[in-house]
Please model this.
Amino acid sequence: MNQIVSRDIWLEASRALLAREKEATRLRDRLNAERRALPWVKVDAAYDFDTPTGRKSLGDLFDGRSQLIVYHFMLGPDWDAGCPGCSFLADHLDGTLTHLNHHDVTLVAVSRAPLEKIEAYRQRMGWYFPWVSSSGSDFKFDFHVSFRDSDLSGDKIDYNFTAIDAANGNDELPGLSAFFRDEGGTVYHTYSSYARGPEDLIGTLMILDRAPKGRNETSTMDFVRRHDEYEQTPAAGSCCHG
Model:
C-alpha cells in the first residue's frame, strides 16, 4: 500500500515526477534523432519471401514505399502457434497500418514458418497486417533472430549486438529491423532492435505503466497470454513456444 497523503503533498510529488518525465521525453527525442542518424548498410543479399500473392523479394515488400519496418515474429517451422509475447505485440499493429502507409512506411511481419501455418495462425488471431514467410531464405539467420541447431550447440550466439550464452538462446528470438529503398531500388538496412527494444510498440504496456499496480509482473511479461487464451490455464514453460 502506498503512502496516503494530502492533496498538496501529492501535487508536490507529482510536479517532481513531471520534471523527470519531461527529462525522459527529451532524452527519448535525442535517442530518436541518434537512431535516424545511424549509418546505413547496403543489403547485397537476395532474399525472397512467400506471400499470399506469390514469391517476393525484400524490395517488393516495401509495396511502393521508401521505408520498411520488419517485425521478426517468432513462429518457427515446427511450432504449433506463435510466441505469446510476439502475439501480444502483434495485437497492437493493425490499427497503425493506415497511418504508417500514409506516412511512406510499410510494416510487415516475417516468420520462418511456412505460409500456410502463418495464415492459419493469423486467422485464429483475427489479424490483417502483412505477414510473410522467409522459409528457404537466410533472412532471419542473417539478422540474428533465428538460430540453427549448430548455432545453439556452441558456447555463444550473436544476439542483441552481443555474444550471449547459447544456453540462453532459442531457435527463434524477437526483433525489429528497419530498411530504406532508394529510387533506384537499392535497399539499405538502417536499424535493428532486439529483446525488449521493440517494447514501445506495445501500447498495453505503456498504459499499464500508468496504472496503480503497473505491470504487476515477476518476470518480463509473465502475465501475457494469447488473447484467446485468458480463460484457459496458462501453459508451463517458456512463453516463446506454442
